[in-house]
Amino acid sequence: MTLEFLWQTGTAAGFTGDAVVAFAFSDRSLDGVLTGLDEISGGIVGRVYGGKAFKGEAGDLFTLPLQGGERMGILVGLGPQADCDRLRLRRAAAQGVRKALGLGCTDVAIAAEEHAPCGLEAAVEAGLIGGAAGAYRFRRYKSGAAEPGVERLTMISSTPVAEAAQRRAVAIAEGVAIARELVDTPPNDKTPDLLSRQVEDIAARSGLSCEVLTADRLRQLGAGGILAVGRGSAHAPAIVVLRHDGGEGPWHGFLGKGITFDSGGLDLKTQDGMLTMKSDMAGTAAVVGAMHAISRIGVKGRYIGVLAVAENMTGTGAYRPSDVLRMLSGDTVEVSNTDAEGRLVLADGLALLRSEGVQDIIDLATLTGAIVVALGTHRSGLFSNNDDHATAVLGAADLAGERYWRMPIDPEHKEALKSSIADTKSTGGRAGGSSTAAAFLARFAGDTPWAHLDIAGAAYREMPGDAGPGASGVGVETLVRFATQG
Ligand code: BES
Ligand code: MN
Ligand code: ZN
Hints:
By secondary structure, this protein is of the alpha/beta class. Helix content is 37%, strand content 23%. The protein has an eight-stranded mixed β-sheet, with helices on both faces. The protein has a six-stranded mixed β-sheet with strand order 1-6-5-2-4-3, with helices on both faces. It is elongated and about 80 Å long. The structure holds ligand BES, manganese (II) ion (MN) and zinc ion. Ligand BES binds next to helix 12.
């Protein structure tokens, strides 16, 4: 079931669906959208707002009847006005729509907050993207009668929202949902062959060109990294290449880690460590979602998305610790741990993008457990060989309301990868594990401006967040904002 987006100019009084979500600051009195809601709630909003029941602090939620119980009102707190940014708005919208979903509402509206310091347009975009995230459910494998879900999301604003902003917001919301569905799909239904086919279908619908490099082609190319990782699996690896050609100029490269299941290989993971490893293709999923949105928006510029897809298993052909691989770039790599498979598939992806002559690269990967230890699950690591490119990506992340933190790649991190028999080892030990992983990738990025986003923490959550459990869709919006520059 796909979510339908509608636009309405005016006040919440004209909405005839099931529930209206509205926002409130903790340091403002009744005005704007809330005045209108106060009128159609018979004064309830005015009585509760600012009191014990609903202060408007971030996370506060208050449900009330509107128009004599014809529909629900859902007030969501934003906290102080000065702290209000796209992230807060997106979260609050997700929280409100999730509440509506829980109440069984199918036709939900969000009344955009005109006073948002980021401006009405950004507020509406964040509201729609957050609201759509809150409405997301993954029910493909649930038998029995379907529980009702949110089918329509109406954005209400006092003044019309520019069509370009509408289109951008819807495209991003769709891209995020596409990414989340791919990540939530169980690993037996997204083996490299199956995932490639799903991406081909998405590309066909999105208007992207799509080429699948199967194992034979990868052998011809000499992509020894991804081939080695895939060798322990009954399902051969593939590299999928998506293209959006929006006119002239250089190509920009996106690259996603696409391990459809990471058992660790012969350096087998623990039971706990393996449990969420269907999400090890979240980088690939983010690239697919972003490329979909970029195509739907009709971004001017050229974008190529490379998906390095393999399953890391322990079959009889499995690659071993101490194997030496010859990579697509020509470099040799001594495998020091088969659970460090992501960097091997990405190394070949980077070499492929460089052979395409791309101007810059952003890769996304659930690469290291160490980044989760360092930054938590709400923030991802950014590593780069180029300050200007890093700044551009951080700027895009800011517009997206996604959080990244720049991490170092020091000469010492590169030093830790020295091998006595090959050009490099694949791992550098426990210390600085995310930086040594990035240092490995940096070799293959060469002098192409490159940013690596380690999304291992933020990509997947076992406990429900504002927008539900499972895949988060992290990275999609940052890539899109990088392409749209706004
Ligand atoms: N896919 C994992 C990283 C990961 C861990 C993602 C936890 C999400 C949550 C990756 O392939 C991996 O196993 N990395 C190893 C590297 C080590 C062997 C150098 C790790 O982080 O332990
Ligand atoms: Mn691994
Ligand atoms: Zn992995």
